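Researcher: Please predict.
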Amino acid sequence: MIAQHIAVIGAGAWGTALANVIARAGRTVTLWARDPVVAARMAERRESPRLPGVPIDARVTIAALAAGKPAADAVLVVVPAQSLRGVVSALAGAVAPGTPVVACAKGIERGTRCFMTEIIGECLPAAIPAILSGPSFAGDVARGLPTAVTLAAPDEATAHRLAHSLGSPSFRPYHSTDVRGVEIGGAAKNVLAIAAGIVAGRKLGASAAAALTTRGFAELVRFGRAYGAHAETLTGLSGLGDLILTCSGAQSRNFALGRMLGEGRTLDEVRRSGQLAEGVFTASVLVEMAGAREVETPIAAAVTAVLDAAWSIDEAIEALMSRPLRAEG
């Protein structure tokens, strides 16, 4: 049964874009902002401050979480990965049992090493955790440019229903039951995109960029296999597809952050500019989890060392290029 009323929690760029997608699919959609002032301003101007110049579809209702609780057939939670637990916990009592709750963040929680659907399962045990991920920039999606993503849920029926609830001529969700694989692709590619940005900022050339993306994908695959991801997911939209986009697209916040580092700015300077991204918070936990399963992730480890100021960028490049020669794989 199609979800007719869908709530989107989080009125940033991606949340606004998804609200537009849902409206175009012909569903009833409420976009819930966490800040009442932001909600009022967006309702008046029909535009998100995070997506200037992109109108919010007239069919999207905008509300403030402080003014009510979202009751819907499905809930999309579109907040940063490290904020997900607090936001989802606040939904307790407002989400009916059996309601799909879809995480739209790409990351792993620091400290707990929890994936996004694991957090939803802990905080809303009666809900059905799901994940939406794939190669998509908010501006493109909000404007209705053609986009394909992956939507995964624990069972085929729920995944199929959610995909058909969100799908439209310009937004094509492929459904899957490989929840973990979709989560891993989204989290790992953010870290690798920082590395790709560093390569661009350092002007290391197209050959280095291609090598970085290819060997980064090998790391993603090794990590994914160690944590139960399916091969077809890792080579699909939420794995390889998203990696290609974020390692080459200037719109990617992770790529942009890496490029600033490559150009010589410090992480503190980047932070003050407001250009922080999910990969900064995911890098160290990804490396920790890789070590726990004895998975080699030299690029992710180098990114973590740079972010922690343990290595300079030149030291990271030297460490990667001086690794022992080996067969490709």
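Model: The longest helix spans residues 179-201.
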